[in-house]
Specification:
The chain has 7 helices and 15 strands. The longest helix has 16 residues. The strands form 3 sheets. Strands 1, 2, 9, 10, 14 and 15 form a 6-stranded mixed beta sheet that branches. A 5-stranded mixed beta sheet has the order 5-4-3-6-7, sandwiched between helices. With 359 residues, the protein is an alpha/beta fold.
Length: 359
């Protein structure tokens, strides 16, 4: 791979990815299964900030339930995330606690409402959501929801509200909030039943029997590589933000994660970068998963769809294992970058988080 000359006008992310990609001897072909080495960008430890404030620090510091009149509306986005489901708590020792949780993609807005067990229906969900919207200074353009078991009810409820309803696992702020409540809120409530948790998560099924289908030929990347980027680049003051990620998105980052960690990811090179990036944006790309047993690299989209990106040989399987270990170390955090070639800005860059299946 030839060296690339960079101008001073290059974006921080472009330079960072260039450094990363140049450290790869070669790229593997997505479907020819060659085996180049993995690469990670290593920054001098002095360049990694010791004082870390994430762009979404309020995710960890905000109270579990935020009153509408207490919100800083300038920080609230118009992309909201919704969950309606029973919690591991019995009310009066008899009936399940049902809640509506509504947050925005930044996690700054957090609103919780209890649903009477005899009013768990689409009409009541719609009424509650409409009430929250009416009292909000920022109106949602999109509301995402991830829970397959509640798909019909939520989809019907949102169909009569002037928003785009998106079944999606890109509900990163919502997932973090539910995890916090599972850890810090429900166990302290009277009637808590830990054995009631962990059912009805992604897809609402007990056994994952999905089969990945191949990407359309027109959207396949020619080359890809497992790589790593410093977590510090995604924090405040880092080189990666909403201005240089193309049509991608950035999941909120937990500010308790160690700053010297590396986020594992995959860079996809293809002359059809814009088309692939646009397709990924439209299909709600939720993450990448390396199935080490099946030796497959799989892309996860919307609520439960899977697309086969590549088969893994022995060397690739070892690299994929490192990728999965890195994800586990950072609570599922990882990234995808789609670009035309090594010296091009990403057409789309996604910082993603694998949502636990037991929410």
């Amino acid at each position: 791979m030839n060296a690339i000359n960079w101008s001073n006008s290059s974006s921080p992310l472009k330079v960072l990815l260039c450094t990363l990609l140049l450290s790869c001897a070669t790229f593997r072909s997505s479907f020819a299964f060659t085996t180049p080495p993995s690469a990670s960008v290593r920054h001098n430890s002095n360049s990694i900030k010791s004082s870390i404030i994430t762009a979404s620090s309020s995710l960890s510091s905000a109270s579990p339930d935020t009153a509408v009149n207490e919100l800083d509306w300038e920080k609230v986005t118009d992309e909201w995330e919704l969950d309606c489901y029973s919690r591991p708590v019995l009310v009066d020792g008899k009936k399940k606690l049902w809640e509506i949780l509504l947050t925005d993609s930044s996690g700054n807005m957090r609103i919780q409402r209890v649903l009477p067990s005899n009013k768990v229906n689409s009409r009541e969900v719609r009424r509650v959501v409409e009430e929250i919207i009416d009292n909000s200074e920022v109106k949602p353009s999109t509301i995402r929801f991830f829970r397959g078991a509640m798909f019909n009810m939520i989809n019907i409820a949102l169909s009569e509200i002037d928003v785009v309803a998106r079944p999606s696992r890109c509900t990163f702020a919502l997932a973090q909030w539910i995890e916090e409540r599972n850890r810090d809120v429900y166990p302290k409530m009277d009637g808590y039943r830990p054995t009631m948790g962990g059912v009805g998560g992604i897809g609402g099924t007990f056994l994952d029997i999905r089969t990945a289908v191949k990407l359309p030929d027109a959207l396949r990347g020619e080359k890809y590589a497992f790589v790593g980027l410093p977590l510090a680049e995604f924090l405040e003051g880092g080189g990666i933000d909403g201005s240089n990620i193309g049509v991608g998105r950035l999941a909120p980052v937990d500010n308790t994660l160690p700053a010297d960690s590396f986020v594992q990811g995959v860079v996809i090179l293809t002359p059809r970068a814009k088309a692939l990036a646009s397709w990924l944006a439209g299909t709600e790309v939720a993450g990448l998963k390396a199935d080490l047993r099946k030796r497959e690299l799989v892309m996860e989209t919307d609520i439960d769809n899977q697309y086969l990106m590549a088969k893994l040989n022995d060397q690739q399987r070892r690299e994929a294992a490192v990728f999965e270990e890195g994800k586990d170390a950072l609570g599922g955090l990882h990234f995808i970058s789609v670009q035309k070639d090594e010296d091009d800005d990403p057409a789309g860059f996604w910082l993603l988080r694998e949502i636990p299946s037991n929410l």
